């Protein structure tokens, strides 16, 4: 793993300043990741309170995902141009204000609009974090440790969001899943202004390709929209929208190839590690997001767990992920190399999903769910920091924000794709089973088993792709992998 090439932005003096900066970056990231998961468990309560229809309720999630996923790439590039600290702090402010608007929402339209604004703030904050992190810690071993901490916060935040969503909704009401962000956001914003080192971007004049920005933002938003709404439209409409998204992407690529000051330097995709790592991440995140969502449904609809019990059942995952990432991940990557660690982690994820594919209708949490979840947690704790380091290695300093935005974009695309595919497969298998006379509970479990098995296939595909394209020079020289 290497630091960003090129001229670095100013680095705060002293280890204490750098650790404080890392804490601020992790706090901002944690807030956005928590929010992305905390809503899931609260959805029934939101529906009952505001009177959402089934399709309408999906937009509480979709509005956030479309804005977040669509703007990450643009926000990352603008961070390189105007300064990543400015982009990060502005994003925290927007996200915090939007959270308050969500918490005081009294109607469907207000909540959906505020969720979209949250997505804007989340994109601004998340897009530049990795670029700032690898600049703060240019030395490979320090960078590996910092990435391990950052990855631990992000991974644990997802599972903690499920727990907090259930606890807050059941104890004080769904409004507080958003209002809790006000004190957290205010403290994080104050700390970011005080702690993060100021930096100069390269200037808007060097990359303000507004037609290109419109094309790529429209393409990404439409892509996420197509994925998250595929189950609610007929195949023809989905295909036409997908073709339109492809046309917008094609127009963007042609624009970047000819523009005097392109928004996105196409040479960035010439990096085998960056392109390959993003492709692997789409598959890996599709698997893990699918597990969180389908796993929660299995606990609630098959095993009969309530909201708080479901959130509590997921708590071992962030504990395992946090302990392993903080205590072992950086040293393991340093000793064996990111390539070997990544492959081992992906293999464990695939095995865990395959075990869940056997979960019966009369299953037990301790026997059928917990062991598989722990196995996947160990795998993710190994894979995510290694994959992040591979993706960011060799990226030039002036492209750090863009590369960071791209890496976060593929997370959103992977998560959306995983949810769309796995939930659709589960619903269809359950419906087919019901038509043959199978009772509701066994039919529901059968649908979830198909989703878990499909996720295991996706994780295996990620393993094969990583083995083929991400083998680094160190691994080849040592004959490993």
Automatic annotation (TrEMBL):
> Could you tell me the keywords of this UniProt record?
Antibiotic resistance, Cell membrane, Membrane, Transmembrane, Transmembrane helix, Transport
Topology versus the membrane = Multi-pass membrane protein
A GO molecular function annotation here is:
transmembrane transporter activity
Gene Ontology biological process terms in this record: response to antibiotic
Q: What Gene3D superfamilies does its record include?
A: MFS general substrate transporter like domains, Multidrug resistance protein D
Where do the Major facilitator superfamily (MFS) profile domain residues begin and end?
A: 21-474
Superkingdom of origin: Bacteria
Q: Where in the cell is it found?
A: Cell membrane
- Write out the GO cellular component annotations: plasma membrane
Identify one Pfam family in the record: MFS_1
The cross-references to InterPro entries, in alphabetical order and at most eight, read: MFS, MFS_dom, MFS_trans_sf
Q: Which residues cross the membrane?
A: 22-45, 57-75, 87-106, 112-134, 146-168, 174-196, 208-230, 236-254, 275-299, 305-327, 339-357, 369-393, 405-427, 447-470
Q: Which PANTHER family match?
A: BLR6921 PROTEIN, MAJOR FACILITATOR SUPERFAMILY MULTIDRUG TRANSPORTER MFSC
Write down what this protein is called. Disulfide bond formation protein DsbA
Which organism does this sequence originate in? Streptomyces antibioticus
């Amino acid at each position: 793993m290497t630091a960003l090439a090129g001229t670095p932005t100013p680095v705060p003096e002293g280890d204490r300043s750098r650790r404080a900066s890392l804490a601020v970056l992790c706090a901002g990231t944690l807030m956005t990741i928590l929010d992305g998961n905390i809503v899931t468990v609260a959805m029934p309560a939101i529906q009952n309170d505001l009177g959402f229809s089934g399709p309408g309720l999906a937009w509480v999630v979709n509005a956030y995902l479309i804005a977040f996923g669509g703007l990450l790439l643009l926000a990352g590039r603008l961070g390189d141009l105007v300064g990543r600290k400015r982009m990060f702090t502005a994003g925290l402010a927007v996200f915090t204000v939007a959270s308050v608007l969500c918490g005081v929402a009294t109607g469907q339209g207000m909540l959906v609009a505020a969720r979209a604004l949250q997505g804007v703030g989340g994109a601004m904050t998340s897009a530049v974090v990795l670029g700032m992190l690898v600049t703060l810690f240019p030395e490979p071993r320090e960078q590996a440790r910092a990435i391990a901490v950052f990855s631990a916060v992000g991974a644990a935040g997802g599972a903690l969001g499920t727990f907090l969503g259930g606890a807050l909704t059941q104890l004080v009401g769904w409004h507080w899943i958003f209002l809790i962000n006000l004190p957290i956001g205010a403290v994080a914003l104050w700390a970011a202004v005080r702690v993060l080192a100021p930096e100069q971007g390269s200037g808007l004049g060097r990359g303000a390709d507004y037609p290109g920005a419109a094309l790529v933002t429209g393409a990404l938003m439409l892509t996420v929209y197509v994925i998250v709404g595929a189950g609610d439209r007929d195949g023809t409409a989905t295909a036409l929208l997908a073709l339109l998204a492809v046309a917008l992407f094609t127009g963007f690529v042609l624009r970047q190839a000819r523009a005097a000051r392109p928004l996105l330097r196409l040479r960035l995709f010439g990096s085998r590690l960056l392109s390959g790592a993003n492709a692997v991440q789409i598959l890996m995140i599709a698997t893990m997001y699918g597990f969180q969502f389908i796993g929660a449904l299995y606990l609630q609809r098959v095993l009969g767990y309530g909201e708080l019990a479901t959130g509590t059942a997921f708590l071992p995952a962030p504990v395992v992920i946090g302990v392993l990432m903080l205590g072992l991940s950086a040293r393991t990557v340093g000793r064996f190399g990111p390539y070997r660690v990544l492959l081992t982690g992906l293999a464990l994820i695939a095995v865990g999903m395959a075990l869940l594919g056997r979960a019966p209708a009369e299953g037990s949490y301790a026997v059928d769910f917990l062991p598989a979840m722990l196995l996947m947690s160990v795998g993710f704790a190994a894979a995510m920091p290694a994959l992040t380091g591979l993706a960011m290695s060799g990226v030039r300093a002036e492209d750090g924000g863009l590369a960071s935005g791209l890496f976060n974009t593929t997370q959103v695309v992977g998560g959306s794709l995983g949810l769309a595919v796995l939930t659709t497969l589960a619903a269809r298998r359950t419906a087919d089973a019901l038509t043959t006379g199978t009772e509701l509970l066994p039919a529901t479990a059968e649908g979830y088993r198909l989703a878990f098995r499909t996720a295991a296939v996706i994780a295996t595909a990620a393993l094969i792709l990583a083995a083929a394209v991400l083998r680094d020079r160190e691994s080849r020289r040592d004959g490993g992998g």
